[in-house]
Amino acid sequence: MRALALVPSLPLWNDLLYEFNASGLVSQVKMLYSEMVLCGVVPNVYSVNLLVHSMCKVGDLGLALGYLRNNTVFDHVTYNTVVWGFCKHGFVDQGFGLLSEMVKKGVCVDSVTCNVVVKGYCQVGLVQYAEWIMDNLVGGGVPLDVVGLNTLVDGYCEAGLMSRALALVEHSRKRGIKPDIVTYNTLVNAFYLQPTVVTWTTLIAAYCKHRGFGEFLSLYEQMIMSGVLPDVVTCSSILYGLCRHGKLTEAALLLREMYKMGLDPNHVSYTTIINALLKSGRIMEAFNHQSQMVVRGISFDIVLCTTMMDGLFKAGKSKEAEEMFQSISKLNLVPNCVTYSALLDGYCKSGNMKEAESLINDIRSKNIYPDVFNYSSLIDGYFKEGNESAALSKVQEMTQKNMQFDVVAYNTLVKGLLRQGKYEPKSVFSRMIEMGLTPDRVTYNSVINTYFIQGKTENAMDLLNEMKSYGVMPNMVTYNILIGGLCKTGVIEKAIDVLNEMLVLGYVPTPIIHKFLLKAYSRSRKADVILQIHKKLVAMGLELDQTVYNTLITVLCKLGMTKIANMVLMEMVTRGFSADIVTYNALICGYCTGSHVEKAFNIYSQMLVDGISPNITTYNTLLGGLSAAGLMSDADKLVSEMKERGLVSNATTYNILVSGHGRVGNKRDSIKLYCEMVTKGFVPTTGTYNVLISDYAKAGKMRQARELLNEMLTRGRIPNSSTYDILICGWCKLSYQPEMDRALKLSYQNEAKKLLREMCEKGHVPSETTLMYISSNFSIPGKKAEAKRLLKVFTQKKNL
């Protein structure tokens, strides 16, 4: 380029300076820099820093310092480089002295500066002085980081002060600096000359709590290779690590291996694995391990009992959880604050608020007073129950006791108020900041979810961007809410964009996201489109399990695509998953949707042969199929079979039966079932009321039909367009009767007109049949067609 009289640009010069410096050709850096200046290219601070770094590397410290002090182009990196150069070559005091010069010139002293000086003093053996310097710099506002921690830990280990190194790690953790792999490796290397089982166990325990799955297992292998055998505490720590990473099968295997190694698992070992099993919903396996404890004579303590009780509540086994609490006194154990908190939270989450209040009174009598966590549980429980006044009374109680809200309590309150529609999403954050609280993911997730419920998609997406701008990154819950909300509003392209963003951040699709997207794509009613998004999600990392296959089969069956659903079932079975109640119910639904009732019953028979007990959904689906086919005698037989199996009819069952009998003209059975239904506290759907009202209308019993309408309104059911069509046509037909009293005829016509007006005001459009009856009833003889046309125009305009 020079031979052609071409002068390289500054970025090209900088690239060359960097490559020469990185390659160790330091002398070439000086020559190249001089050549650049001679060419008239003005160096920037990056060029200067490369030059200074090359000088420091070879020990030209005087030249580097002179260049720094006599040049106007420099920044904090330049100073850090010169400080590094002095420390690297053993002139630590001179390097440290430059810090005061940096402060005078207003150059930032950052964590890099601090770490370089600390490392310099550690290298010359002055570790305690290095720690003193770090404490002073951190006290002056320099942020502490894990690099500085590792430097000091290495210094203390080199000096043989192992206890001080461990104490420093623990102290730093309390200050929010978590040890990393370098920290632990430094400690391992330091202890290498005198390893004991206690040393290894301490390190393994730390790895299990803070590091990845492979890392603590690698450390365990190193321990075995060094000839140190694990003890019960070591294995319990590894059990915790395995459970923390969801490796429950491996954890159970390790528990068995412990016995083979001559180690007897203690209550800590069993509590760890039982807790993990309960949290993952594997109740029977958890109880099996509990039974093993009994057989092996391992005593239960309050921690295990509390863990079991809490896990059972979270798994939806409230009765078993209460029985576990009752067993505490039988074991002569005394419940503690954690036990009572878990019990209270369990009652609140299961909706048993009477027991929750009773428990609060009980623990107060024992001089144990509710804390913020307990109040959060109560507030959440009352909101979920729909008892807003009781929830707010607890908030008032907290205020009267000068109890400060924490983020969890505030999120609970906000979530409840948002769910009730009694809180403006925009005011959530301002109020929170007033209280001195910082919004977290839960806060943002609650408000984003509320925006989606309100149909405010843009607000939800704007809040997502705001959330990220404040450094609060979305988690899996956030992405579930976002993709679910976007799919429900039909914005599938945006949902896919969010899905791609989620993948970039290292998350993989979950079964709930799979469900949202499949339902959204099923609107196309095209099997290939549904299967394509399913395969795409699997390729993105979605784990194929029973739930995923069932979702795909259910979506296909709801569209009547039973042939393709059966192909998916075959694939599912080949992968080792057997059809369960959800699978069978989906296939039965698919065949009933396609009016193949006989095939639906074939699936039902196969289900019984396979030992799967039908549930109420199974029977309701079959009853729906029989009802649609008008086979009500068969439906009655199936109800009898259902009752023999101990299942009780629910609201859906009654709606199907009442409507079915009504449609085939079994008016007596229909009314009888309706009376039975309302007596049991069930409220018929609008569709069921329409069938009953239609029966009365066909028989000309319009007063009874009107009474049924009033009852329907009283029970909170809203009439739809079909309801109005049935009633209007019924009154019109009644007024057609020959030789009817004029006043009576006018009253019938007035009923029809009143209902038509009400129908239009509520935004419903009359059917063609209704328009025909109205026009026939009110038109001048010979003008029926014109009256119908004008009426149609009028009713459509009313609804614009």
TrEMBL record:
Listed Gene3D superfamilies: Tetratricopeptide repeat domain
Residues in PPR repeats: 75-109, 110-144, 145-179, 196-230, 231-265, 266-300, 301-335, 336-370, 371-405, 406-439, 440-474, 475-509, 545-579, 580-614, 615-649, 650-684, 685-719
Membrane-spanning intervals of the chain: none
A GO term from the CC aspect: mitochondrion
Family annotation (InterPro entries): Mito_RNA_Proc_CCM1, PPR_rpt, TPR-like_helical_dom_sf
A GO molecular-function descriptor: mRNA binding
GO biological process, one term: mitochondrion organization
Entry keywords, A to Z: Repeat
PANTHER family documented for this protein: MITOCHONDRIAL GROUP I INTRON SPLICING FACTOR CCM1-RELATED, PENTATRICOPEPTIDE REPEAT-CONTAINING PROTEIN PET309, MITOCHONDRIAL
Family per record: Belongs to the PPR family. P subfamily.
Name this polypeptide is given: Uncharacterized protein
Source species taxonomy: Eukaryota, Viridiplantae, Streptophyta, Embryophyta, Tracheophyta
